[in-house]
Amino acid sequence: MADGRISARVASIAPSATLAVTNKAKALKAAGEPVVGFGAGEPDFPTPDYIVEAAAEACRDPKNHRYGPAGGMPELKAALAEKTVRDSGYQVDPAQIVVTNGGKHAVYNGIAGVIDPGDEVLIPTPYWTTYPEPVRLAGGIPVPVTTTIADGFKATVDQLEAARTDRTKALIFVSPSNPSGAVYEREQIEAIGRWAVEHGLWVLTDEIYEHLVYDDHQFHSMPVVVPELADRCMVFNGVAKTYAMTGWRVGWVIAPADMAKALTSLQSHQTSNVANVSQVAALTAVSGDLSAVVEMRQAFDRRRLTMHKMLSEMRGVECLLPEGAFYAFPSMDALLGTTVGGVTIDSTLQLADLALERAKVAFVPGEAFGSPGYARFSFALGDDDLAQGLERLADLLATS
């Protein structure tokens, strides 16, 4: 604000568009409107019972009523190290792990640990809405690297090199991708990792969707594919997506030991420890098997195919088959400049508002992800709601 009542740094933060869409949809539902929301980035499954029971038991243990180590319970960090080598082949020491209040906290702290004012951070589009904001808060400069449906939403080394300057400090990399659903091939990951090593860049890689891949696609962790990158790499992860634990708020950063120590010091002043009961729940989750995510992945796969088919059949919509995560990211560019429901459409932002108003369908416009002309649809919702919502949208788009 001009009068300085709110600091320029905080006033410059863009609110989370995904949460805004979800909250608006929930408010309309609460008012009795039959809204179908495709905005939520969370599984529609409950947290598995055995995890909930472990948390309930932890509530009764007085040791969990007290402060704990700022960087996380030692037993959870040890379990996360074991989980990491089990799931991705990345061998790390518990001292390299900092347990955070969810994945967003991990991203924020990791960026804060690397970026100084004036540093540039390469962020391929479409990007998760949160990535640019911590960069700006650290005084850094987000540099979008544009990918499109034509290239499968995967940045190439040539694109990254064209965007690199002598001020480039880091690359944010995510596969499987939110919002595009893209999964990079091993060869692509290796090429990008070796390029980062060659130029002394940090890579901040978000692996929270590691278990949500479909068909023949495979997840690969960049520091495993390119081991020499490990000293300038941070991995972000959490229990939210794999175990349907979005509300428990447990994430983590894996970093070189000196960086992990620095991030622990930062967190000691920010939040102290993550809630002990949530940490016990996370310990139970990561120490168990992956049967919960296998069940969810099967449901997501079925919905993925339905959503791709229905979106692809709509007027003016082009959609790639999602390879991972639980999002479709169709192009609606062909609708721009045309009339939908008597309204001339000039942006996907406008189209999203029209869809919510006329069809009671909520999706997140591509502007939120640095990709105007596109839209993100989550398929982490019930099969009946998914089909009904897409039928409504198709009917709306069919009217000129």
Provide a concise account of the structure shown.
Helices cover 40% and strands 14% of the residues.
Q: Explain this structure to me?
A:
- The protein is of the alpha/beta class.
- The chain folds into 2 domains: 8-46 and 292-398, Alpha-Beta Complex (Aspartate Aminotransferase, domain 1); 67-287, Type I PLP-dependent aspartate aminotransferase-like (Major domain) (Aspartate Aminotransferase, domain 2).
- The chain has 14 helices and 14 strands.
- It has helices at residues 8-11, 17-30, 49-59, 74-88, 103-114, 132-137, 157-163, 186-198, 222-225, 257-270, 276-287, 291-312, 348-359, 383-398, and strands at residues 36-37, 97-100, 120-125, 141-146, 168-174, 202-206, 233-238, 251-254, 327-328, 339-340, 343-344, 361-362, 364-365, 375-378.
- The strands form 4 sheets. It has a 7-stranded mixed β-sheet with strand order 2-8-7-6-5-3-4, with helices on both faces. It has a 3-stranded antiparallel β-sheet with strand order 9-14-13. A two-stranded parallel ribbon has the order 1-12.
- A hairpin with a 2-residue loop joins β10 and β11 (343-344).
- α5 packs across α10 (257-270) and α12 (291-312) packs parallel to α14 (383-398).
- The longest helix is centred in the C-terminal third of the chain and has 22 residues, at 291-312.
- It is globular.
- The two termini are 41 Å apart.
